[in-house]
Amino acid sequence: MPDPMRCESASQKQWHQRQHQRRRLLTQLDNVSLVVSYRCHNAAGPQLKSAADVSWNFLTVFASRATSLSISHCIVRSLEWLNALKSLRSLSFHKCHIVCSDDEFHRFSKYLPNLKHFGAEEVTDAMLEELSLVESLRSLEMTNSPMLTNTGLRELAASQAGAHLRQLRIEGCNRLTLHGFEALAKNLLNLRRLKLRFVSDSFPRSTVLLMHVANLPWLHTLDLSRSFGLCDDGIHSISTISSLTSLNLEGCEDITDLCVMHLVSLPVLRHLDLFGCWRVTNAGLLSIGKMIELRSLSLGHC
C-alpha cells in the first residue's frame, strides 16, 4: 500500500516544477499584454489575495517586460510595485478601489515615465496632477470619479501631458462644471477622440464649450451621449468640425430635426448614433439621407 505522505510529497514536487517552468517561460516573453482580473480584497505588496494566490512579487518578475497591464476588481493599497514595470505603456484599473495615499501617488510619474495610456475609476485631483507630469501620455480615461473637480482639469489643461493628449474620456464625474471643460477644450489642441458622458447636469447647457470643441483641429471622434441640454446652437457648433468622422448623440433627448439638419454640413461624417433621440421625426431622417459619406447609423426610440 503506497505511503500517503510520500504521494503527497511527490505531488507537491510536481506542482512546484510546473510553477517554475511557467515562470521561466513567462520571463522570456516580450511585449506582453497582461490582464489581472481577480475579485480581491487586498491588491498590495506582497500578496494579491485571491483563490489563485498570485503575489505581486511574481507579477513584477514576469511582467517586467509587459507593455500593457489591466487590473480589475482589486483594492490597490500600494503602487510601489509599478517601479519594476519599466516597459509598461498602458495601465488600466477597472472596478478597482485605489486607497494609497496622495504622497505615494506623487511618485507615479517616476515609476512609469513612458506611459501612453492610463484608465481608472475614482480618480482624484491629486492623481490627475501627477498624471499631468507624464509627458508621454497620449490617452486618458477617467470614469466614476466623484472626487474629481475643475482643479484637476485645469492642471491637466495647463500641462505638457495635456498638450500631447490624443484621446480623452470623462464619464460619470458629476462634480465637474463648464469651467473645467472649457479649460480642456481651449488647451488640448491635439485631441483626436473626445468622450464626455454622464458628466454633470450642467453640461453642456452653454454653447460656449462646444464652440471651443469645434476649434479642435484634429478631432475626428466625438461622443456626447447622455448629455442633457444639447440645443440647436450647440449642434450648429459641432457641425463646423470638418474633420469629424464619428458622432455619438445617443440618449441626448433634446436633439431635434433642426439639430440633425445642421449635421448635414459635416463633410466626412461616417458614423452617427441617434439612439434614444425621440424628438427626431421623419423630417430629420430625410436630412440624414443627404449625408453622402455616412456608413453606419444607429436609430431607436425615435
Briefly summarize what is shown.
With 302 residues, this protein is an alpha/beta fold. The chain has a single domain (29-298), classed as Ribonuclease Inhibitor (Leucine-rich repeat, LRR (right-handed beta-alpha superhelix)), CATH 3.80.10.10.
Summarize the structure in words.
The chain is α/β, with parallel strands linked by helices. The chain has one domain (29-298): Alpha-Beta Horseshoe (Leucine-rich repeat, LRR (right-handed beta-alpha superhelix)). The chain has helices spanning 4-26, 56-62, 102-105, 108-111, 125-131, 150-157, 160-164, 178-187, 207-213, 232-238, 257-263, 282-288, and strands spanning 32-37, 47-48, 54-55, 66-72, 75-76, 90-94, 97-98, 117-121, 139-143, 167-171, 193-197, 221-223, 246-248, 271-273, 296-298. The protein has an eleven-stranded parallel β-sheet with strand order 1-4-6-8-9-10-11-12-13-14-15, with no helix packed on it. It has a two-stranded antiparallel ribbon with strand order 2-3. α10 (232-238) runs parallel beside α11. The protein is elongated and about 75 Å long. The model is unreliable at 38-55 (pLDDT under 50).
